[in-house]
Design goal:
Blueprint (H helix, E strand, L loop, with lengths): L5 E6 L5 H13 L7 H6 E2 L2 E2 L1 H8 L5 E5 H8 L8 E5 L6 E4 L1 H5 L4 H14 L7
Parallel strand pairs: 1-4
Antiparallel strand pairs: 1-5, 2-3, 5-6
Length: about 130
């Protein structure tokens, strides 16, 4: 029996220490203009929120978090609005699972958790990225 497809949660931000520091500063100074709603609801000033970590652990599948530059480098995916969640089966190409417009509507961690639960229960159709 094969394992369930893994999920890639992709931030609308680039990787790296300097980028991370700029992101933290931006979220503190002007949170309403911060471009990554996924970061905005899942991270506090001290890192990833405990409730989100526990929720992700309980999804029953492998989950990986990437930045937009890592998505491009590892999977060759670009030109997709971010933040987004992709589903990957085996060595296949990532399929869009939750698009940016849905994630952007999540105004709180509870909203995001409810959105991911609904998507998981619905068994999202594959949409090639």
């Amino acid at each position: 029996m094969s394992s369930p497809p893994r999920l890639l949660f992709v931030y609308n931000a680039d990787a790296g220490l300097l980028n991370g520091l700029k992101d933290i500063w931006h979220k503190v100074v002007s949170p309403e203009t911060y471009p990554c709603s996924l970061c905005g609801v899942t991270y506090g000033p001290l890192g990833m929120k405990r409730e989100w970590k526990e929720f992700v652990r309980g999804l029953g599948r492998e989950v990986k978090f990437l930045h937009r530059d890592e998505l491009r480098a590892q999977y060759g995916v670009q030109g997709v609005a971010l933040p987004a969640v992709f589903e990957v089966q085996g060595q296949g190409k990532p399929a869009l699972w939750l698009p940016a417009e849905e994630i952007d509507r999540a105004r709180s961690l509870d909203d995001l958790i409810a959105l991911v639960r609904r998507a998981q229960q619905a068994g999202r159709p594959e949409r090639a990225a």
